[in-house]
């Protein structure tokens, strides 16, 4: 697979640390509108072909697939151009700023017959994959209740950088710069974490969003800090279970933690993922009576990057595909409407 990298920021570097060491994968080109950033990136990873526009890269055309690591609002036009050129696409999340654009991308990719995949990073968490297997195997019985949270602290900690001075973080706080806040940024991750792990889809949603004051006048330079910082969401799942999902950037003491609890009539599971590792625990069988939780061993799983490369080489469409990500975007769009109208909506 000859791969083009579109966008050369922090996430692109993370991706290249995977792709650069895969058998059968050659990173042949990079695109960025910032020439200095492009040069630094391409020099670091030994990439010969460098383009300041996607149009120039497509005109060159000597690549099979692209990984789209541009800001959220750029995903739609750039992915549509890649699909029109017949290129396979791995797109960062969220697929688009809204459901209509995400659906347009989905239908275009399906019509073109190109491999399409969204980098929902936490599908790489092996305990999540194992939890889903156990749910599907009936080990928990009928699922009754689901809790999921995504906790970050970068608004109260400089561990990942200073959001007050760095554009890398500031744009994520401003709707005018293409951000839908914590709901649009990591909401798609925790929605997928919950629904995938519980092996069901979200059927109804009601959400509350909150934007806290972070600077005098709610603005830093050109950035109006109006995107949501926290959300809480109650959901009904298609299998009849009730769910509570929430996320925030104000979770002091939690750098980046995802947690999922799945409660069934015959047992329960807990998945925890933090930067230093992941864990699966269960309360099953006779342990239900004493409320004893035990660690469950989990085998490694292929990464999204490995599965995308395999899909391009084999021609077999992988999951999570564009349609799945578009459906999650629909939930996010409806969640924003429920905040404004204060009413539950059916997905």
Automatic annotation (TrEMBL):
Coiled coil ranges: none
InterPro entries: Gfo/Idh/MocA-like_OxRdtase_N, Gfo/Idh/MocA_oxidrdct_glycsds, GFO_IDH_MocA-like_dom, NAD(P)-bd_dom_sf
GFO/IDH/MocA-like oxidoreductase domain span: 129-270
Domain Gfo/Idh/MocA-like oxidoreductase N-terminal: residue ranges: 2-119
Listed Pfam families: GFO_IDH_MocA, GFO_IDH_MocA_C3
GO MF terms held by the record: nucleotide binding; oxidoreductase activity
Superkingdom, natural source: Bacteria
Keywords linked to the UniProt accession: Oxidoreductase
Protein known as: Putative dehydrogenase
Species of provenance: Rhizobium azibense
